[in-house]
């Protein structure tokens, strides 16, 4: 059954990494954290607005490798080139990610639940992709100008997300 959940904790406590591990488990059917079975695997849509693409790829590569979904040869690491978004002196990681793992990631596109164009796009993507799991990370960055400390400001977004459940 469709439900709505949230993961809250202090800053810098690996919330995104845990959310990515969950996304990978649901998409692949592999046990979450190597321990908890996934009773209903399926497509996952992950909207990530906080971390740079190279960081998301790096974390995803490590999680996929740890879960046994990719081999070392399927990760391509190269030095940062001029124009890459990665920090100077860092590396860029590319993945030959398995085609049979239905995981879509929208990373740093300025997604905003206060914008009709964005909510319409998310709704359409969910109708077409039929995800079992949608992750919006982090919530405070996708709420437009809403005060995330005031429930009265969050209520319209949460009501919309409840309608998104299919």
Q: How would you explain this protein's 3D organization?
A:
The chain has a 3-stranded parallel sheet, with helices on one face. It contains 4 helices and 5 strands. It has helices at residues 15-28, 53-66, 116-129, 151-164, and strands spanning 44-48, 75-79, 91-95, 103-107, 133-137. By secondary structure, the chain is of the alpha/beta class. 34% of the residues lie in helices and 15% in strands. The protein is globular. α1 (15-28) packs across α2.
Gyration radius, rounded: 17 Å
Number of alpha- plus pi-helical segments: 4
Strand content: 15-25%
SSE arrangement, N to C: HEHEEEHEH
Terminal-residue CA separation: 9 Å
Strands, count: 5
The main sheet orders its strands as: 4-1-5
Model regions low in confidence, pLDDT < 50 over at least 5 residues: none
Secondary-structure class: alpha/beta
Largest sheet: 3 strands, parallel
The whole-number mean of residue pLDDT values reads 83
Query: What proportion of the residues is helical, as a percent range?
Result: 25-40%
Q: Per the principal axes of the C-alpha atoms, what is the gross shape?
A: globular
Short description:
This protein is α/β, with parallel strands linked by helices and 166 residues long. It has helices spanning 15-28, 53-66, 116-129, 151-164; strands at residues 44-48, 75-79, 91-95, 103-107, 133-137.
């Amino acid at each position: 059954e469709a439900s709505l959940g949230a993961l809250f904790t202090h800053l810098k406590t690996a919330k995104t990494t845990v959310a990515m591990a969950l996304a990978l488990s649901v998409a692949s059917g592999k046990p979450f954290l190597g321990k908890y079975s996934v009773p209903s695997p399926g497509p996952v849509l992950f909207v990530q607005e906080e971390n740079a693409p190279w960081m998301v790829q790096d974390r995803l590569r490590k999680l996929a490798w740890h879960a046994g979904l990719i081999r070392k040869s399927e990760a391509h690491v190269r030095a940062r080139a001029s124009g890459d978004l990665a920090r100077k002196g860092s590396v860029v990681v590319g993945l030959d990610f398995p085609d049979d793992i239905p995981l879509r990631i929208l990373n740093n596109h300025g997604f905003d639940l206060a914008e009709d164009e964005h909510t319409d796009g998310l709704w359409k993507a969910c109708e077409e992709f039929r995800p079992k799991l949608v992750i919006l990370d982090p919530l405070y960055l996708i709420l437009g100008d809403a005060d995330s400390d005031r429930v009265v400001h969050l209520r319209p977004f949460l009501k919309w997300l409840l309608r998104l459940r299919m």
